[in-house]
Amino acid sequence: MLRKLFGNSAAAAGAAAPARASFLPYYEQTFAPLLADRTSGFRMMFELLEARCRGLSRPALIVETGSLRAVGNWSGDGQSTRLWKEFAAFQPCEIHTVDLDPGAAPVVRAECGDAVQAHTGDSVAFLYKMAQSPEPPQIDLLYLDSYDFDVADPFPSAFHHIKELIAVRPCLGPGSIVAIDDNYPHPDPADGRVTGKGYLAMQWFRDLDIPLLHRGLQFVWQL
Ligand SMILES: C[S@@+](CC[C@H](N)C(=O)[O-])C[C@H]1O[C@@H](n2cnc3c(N)ncnc32)[C@H](O)[C@@H]1O
């Protein structure tokens, strides 16, 4: 099933991408004012992704864990899935989102139509299956926002996001953009560290010498 789903984007080589209108002015005018603490993180992702799209001869592949679940909750959850759909009106994209909750996929389909393929299941298993394809598709933007973070018990969520990265590693190559949502200053201000979904991933990327390009509620890296 996944070969069928993910085979197309990697194989759809063709002529160099034609010049297209930029999504960024539309983002600034329409979405940036709604996104509160995520405004700058999404801006960074779209700047990087748009630049990457200019060099692609296939649709950009966007993969997300943790789907839009509450329509209109811009400042709370972020509405990431809807934003990918909006970006896809400017640049050809293949978009997949996965959520453990079977209630999420119908919400995504109602909000995003055919632009986004919504899957139900555990994100680690989903990503691993994708990465086991004979020719693993190369992800252009990987957005990790699954397993809700509990400030009283940060490890399970952060570790889940590490498991996602391990599972999907064959699909990440030079230029792949990786973002993780829901990161916060450490509750002890003297500590200096961060906590949140990405605090372990931050250490992993640091060990790999991959610089953190955006540090806020969302962390953004580019391989
Ligand atoms: C914060 S919400 C995602 C919000 C969405 N990205 C947005 O911007 O609107 C987190 C989602 O992760 C899902 N989730 C939790 N554990 C998961 C897992 N193991 N695999 C996939 N999804 C999971 C939850 O069901 C929930 O819908």
List the helices and strands and how they pair.
Layout: H1 2-11, H2 24-31, H3 39-54, E1 60-65, H4 80-87, E2 93-99, H5 104-112, E3 116-120, H6 123-131, E4 141-144, H7 155-168, E5 177-180, E6 183-185, E7 194-196, H8 199-207, E8 212-215, E9 219-222
Parallel strand pairs: 1-2, 1-4, 2-3, 4-5
Antiparallel strand pairs: 5-9, 6-7, 8-9
Helix pairs in contact: 2-3, 6-7
The chain binds S-adenosylmethionine.
What does this entry show, briefly?
This protein has 223 residues and is an alpha/beta fold. It has eight helices and nine strands.
The beta-strand count equals: 9
Averaged pLDDT: 92
Examine the coordinates and then state which fold CATH places here, giving the name of the CATH topology of the domain at 122-223.
Rossmann fold
What's the arrangement of strands in the largest beta sheet?
3-2-1-4-5-9-8
Q: Output the helix-strand order.
A: HHHEHEHEHEHEEEHEE
Bound compounds, each kind once, are: S-adenosylmethionine
- CATH class call of the domain at 122-223: Alpha Beta
Q: Identify the overall geometry.
A: globular
- The percent range for strand residues is 15-25%
